[in-house]
Amino acid sequence: MQTLHNSFDEVRHTSRIFRSMVLLMASMLLLSCASPGSANRPLQLLSGSAPVYPRALISRAVSGQVTLGYDVTAQGTVVNIRVVASEPSGLFDATAVQAVSSWVFRPQQRDGKFEAVEGLESTLTFRAP
């Protein structure tokens, strides 16, 4: 009976050591992900306005969409906004550009350094209210 009790104590002790090692390894892994030198994060939208349906078009109940191209700086601001496609042509362009110009991003990060991202596209859809 004493041998069985000792074996149980050894298993319990080994189990505690194993759990401690797993927790330590998990903590080290999380720490390495959070260290500034190895941080890699994709571009992330933080804030900005949605497009506002133009008041002048409400009575006409027109729907459409605008595809905009743009770049995001290493500071997270949107620059170089351009209309790529628009249907119906020209009706929603200004409202779409105004909305996208208000967007603020958390910049893309590689190896702890913020980077600009070029050549992004977003399509904004407009439906009559």
Structural features, described:
This protein is an alpha+beta fold. It has 2 domains: 2-34; 44-126, TolA/TonB C-terminal domain (2-Layer Sandwich). The protein contains 2 helices and 7 strands; from the N terminus they run H-E-E-E-H-E-E-E-E. It has helices at residues 2-34, 93-101, and strands spanning 44-47, 64-72, 78-87, 104-106, 108-110, 113-115, 117-126. It has a 3-stranded antiparallel beta sheet, covered by helices on one side. Strands 1-4 form a two-stranded antiparallel ribbon. A hairpin with a 2-residue loop joins strand 5 and strand 6. It is elongated and about 50 Å long. The mean pLDDT is 82.
Sequence-ordered SSE layout with sheet pairings:
Elements: H1 2-34, E1 44-47, E2 64-72, E3 78-87, H2 93-101, E4 104-106, E5 108-110, E6 113-115, E7 117-126
Antiparallel strand pairs: 1-4, 2-3, 2-7, 5-6
